[in-house]
Design brief:
Blueprint lengths: L4 E6 L5 H12 L3 E2 L1 H11 L3 H8 L6 H13 L7 H17 L4 E4 L3 H4 L6 E7 L2 H10 L8 H20 L11 E4 H4 L1 H11 L1
Parallel strand pairs: 1-3, 1-4, 2-3, 4-5
Length: about 200
């Protein structure tokens, strides 16, 4: 089966964004990641920095549930938090971009926005620790002393955001159609495999 859309979730340092960018150039189709932030920014009249800071906040806590219950009882008309508004706006942006034709999405739980389509390949990019560490240092400019903390921080944020908005585990095989190990396979091989499926 060939696919018209690829959604990519990735571990920090695995090179998922690099793979998406190369695939986009090789196939001549757009790749959306930061552009989703920009579209949400225009719609909600918030800066991209504000959105990035709020988008991945966890709201599936007991305290949040109690807050929402109290809000409902008070008769408040607006039941959505800023984080949920951002998520829904991002999902609309994903659908709008997809309506233009074949493309690649990086992050933002894009597979959730396209869950009713049959032509979407849901991909997770992972890698071993050493490859991720070296990429974080050499390509992302993270000081070696900060690598472990940075990787844990971003992976936790991505995992929490994914679960909060999909009720699925971010790193579970059941959440994806294909899982690629960029450390053992290499970036180029990952690109070629995905290219063959588009």
């Amino acid at each position: 089966m060939s696919y018209n859309y690829i959604t990519i979730e990735r571990e920090y340092g695995s090179g998922g964004a690099i793979i998406a960018d190369r695939l986009s150039k090789d196939c001549g189709i757009p790749c959306y990641g930061q552009q989703i932030f920009e579209k949400v920014s225009q719609e909600l009249r918030m800066s991209v920095d504000q959105i990035e800071n709020r988008e991945e906040k966890v709201t599936n806590s007991f305290l949040y549930s109690m807050y929402m219950l109290a809000t409902m009882r008070s008769g408040s008309g607006d039941m959505l938090t800023a984080e949920k508004k951002i998520f829904l706006s991002a999902q609309k942006a994903v659908q709008d971009f997809a309506a233009k034709g074949s493309c690649i999405f990086v992050g933002h739980c894009a597979s959730e926005g396209l869950k009713d389509r049959k032509d979407v390949l849901r991909v997770f990019i992972r890698s071993d620790y050493e490859h991720k560490k070296q990429r974080a240092i050499s390509e992302y400019g993270i000081p070696e002393a900060d690598v472990d903390r940075t990787m844990r921080h971003y992976d936790k944020r991505r995992s929490s955001f994914f679960y909060d908005n999909t009720s699925k585990r971010w790193d579970s095989m059941e959440s994806y159609d294909l899982i690629l190990d960029s450390g053992s396979m290499g970036i180029d091989s990952c690109v070629q495999i995905l290219k063959s499926l588009l």
